[in-house]
Amino acid sequence: MKGSMRTRLQETMAQLKSKYREALKDEALQAAFDELWPVWSSEMGAMIYSEVLSTLDLLLLTAAADNRREIEEIKRQLSGGPRVEG
């Protein structure tokens, strides 16, 4: 895949959305996939800056980071701690 890292990321994201997402049988997984899109878009600069990992690795890493953020927020809510805006 040639082109800038931004172009490669955008092409990979589009391919995942059109093929992978549609292949998911579970509607909850499709909805969860849709929730990754805003995070991938907003953190594209960080993914481009890393230059070390493949495009898919970067998408997975960003999704994992967002999952961790969500888990930590839920833990704070359950413990009565302060809310942190993402």
3D structure, described in words:
- By secondary structure, the protein is mostly helical.
- Helix content is 78%, strand content 0%.
- The chain contains 4 helices and no strands.
- The mean pLDDT is 84.
Helix amount, in percent? over 70%
Distance between the termini: 32 Å
Work out the number of β strands. 0
Sheet with most strands: none
Rg, Å, rounded: 15 Å
Q: Secondary structure elements and their pairing?
A:
Layout: H1 5-23, H2 27-42, H3 44-50, H4 55-79
What key phrases describe this protein's structure?
flat; 78% helix; mainly alpha; single chain; 86 residues
Short description:
The chain has 86 residues and is an all-alpha fold. It has four helices and no strands. It has one domain (5-79).
